[in-house]
Design goal:
CATH class of chain A: Alpha Beta
CATH topology of chain A: Alpha-Beta Plaits
Number of strands of chain A: 5
Distance between the termini of chain A: 23 Å
Radius of gyration of chain A: 14 Å
Helix content of chain A: 25-40%
Strand content of chain A: 25-35%
Largest interface: A-B, 37 and 37 residues
Order of helices and strands of chain A: EHEEHEE
Oligomer: homodimer
Chain lengths: 96, 96
Amino acid sequence: MMVLITYDVNTTTVAGEKRLRKIAKLCRDYGQRVQHSVFECLADPHQIALLKNKLIDVMDKDKDSLRFYYLGSNWKPKIEHIGAKEGYDPEGVIIT
Amino acid sequence: MMVLITYDVNTTTVAGEKRLRKIAKLCRDYGQRVQHSVFECLADPHQIALLKNKLIDVMDKDKDSLRFYYLGSNWKPKIEHIGAKEGYDPEGVIIT
């Protein structure tokens, strides 16, 4: 299934910058970055649960926010891209 | 229907900063900001088409990107929020 993950991390402190780097790395491990703080993860529910738990461990729940959008298996017609950097196929290799 | 809009605007120039402000204002006019560059718009297809055209007019297609995620009418179970700033009801008033 396709899950979109978006995040806001409070980077006003060094600790916040570290959390941002860790969260971005975790999302990269499981998905593709499509915008600065937006990742698309094509994975099974077990993998998504694993990723979610890892993200929750890293984030500061009082300062950062994560949103998960569950787009299901018929996700292709639900996504439209306009403009720069349309450069990857979530089912294939990175083509940027 | 619910449409999620995410954007990356290249703000390395004054013109880019202007585009960012205009794009954020347009998205605010039609939806709710849920993260820094993430808006959720609960609107009919006509309104979404209007917004899309306005955004395309403002953006620089070579430098900026917009993504639309069409979550349909049964969007509530598709969205999960974790952490800070869960503060609005897209069907109601702003509660932050």
